[in-house]
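Issue: ligand-bound run for pyridoxal-5'-phosphate - logging full I/O for the record.

Environment: standard queue, default settings, no custom constraints.

Inputs:
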Amino acid sequence: MNFEEIAALEKAALISTYDRLPLLAVKGEGCYLYDDRGKKYLDFLGGLAVNSLGYAHPELLAALRDERETLLHVSNLLYHRYQAPLAEKLAGLAGLNRVFFANTGTEAIEAAIKLARAYARKHHPAEPFERLEILAVENSFHGRTLGALSATWPEKYRRPFEPLLPGVRFVRLNDVGHLRASFTPQVAAVLLEVIQGEGGVVELREDFLKTAEELCRANDALFVADEIQCGLGRTGRWFAFQKFGLKPDVVVVAKPLAAGLPLSALIASERAAQAFSPGMHGTTFGGGPLQCRLALKVLEIMERPGFLECVREVGGYFRAQLGKLRQELPVVCEVRGEGLMLALELAAPCKSVVRKALEAGFLVNCTQERVLRFLPPLIIERRHVDELIAALQPMLAALGRSEMKGASV
Ligand SMILES: Cc1ncc(COP(=O)(O)O)c(C=O)c1O
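Outputs:
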């Protein structure tokens, strides 16, 4: 079936939850995706931060081929070879002790919320009040299941499904005073993204993050870092929280972990992890052998000398080029982000730029209406950045001109 036939069939057969771009993806290689007509696209969307090693990585394909011949799935009632080494590796990287594997980001956030409640009950059973509250941050995104959704800020996501989880409160972004005032003894956990992804690549400030950590420490609440988008090498560090020397009790990762297969992990300190005992939480698919084996390979590749340095180097170059666009073009208001999690905030809606970029053979993403977000594979090179910048420049200039015209009529 060609693009038109697939699009028509989807229109009839799918529940309408996505506003797709007109691209029928059939193949990927390195940083490029190919459509059904053989046109190639340089991918600055990266499967929404999933395809960190690009497409069709030969070592990942080899691991995939090998494992499919032996074991696709075993239940969590049995052992397989890969969960334990992967857990040890992830815990070591995060400076923590134990791991629970799930499938998606939102599921692992769900597990973190449950762990926070279980932790409060285990370690503070005699208190005359329930520690049930989760403090989240305005503009955050933590997922779509009911618990994670309760901690997700945009009303448009939450409103249709209310009532949600009681006891989730939002702190104003980077407002230390509001954070202190909001932190009551009922707080079981603070849940935050060190760099907010869906929120438009917004960095939390160091003083805000450190205050959140201190308050959690002082009150024995869990400090939970959602590193689903900003973690696992995206910023040129294993985790975004490492920039400030933070020590979360719980770290949640997902997207790039198994190179495109569903796998997420809740990584916890020993004390936090003790709150779960057999039977309290589980999943059929989480931590399957194929996913875990691929994840071990992903981490092995990212751990090689120079990999993360390269993310920082190319990311720094990319940011500098975006900075030049900002200087040249009034329609560009701000450059944000770190490593290869970058964004341009524009003075006008950016949906049209996404479409034009697609026509020109570039995949970029628009979030928050006016934020162009870039989450390319971590293997991109300077020349890819140059190609994108050269293509974007006239598109943004034209957007600026039409914005000016609109403003003057
Ligand atoms: C920071 C963050 N948390 C949670 C999620 C939810 O992850 P998933 O879509 O895998 O459920 C996302 C997804 O974009 C995310 O960016």
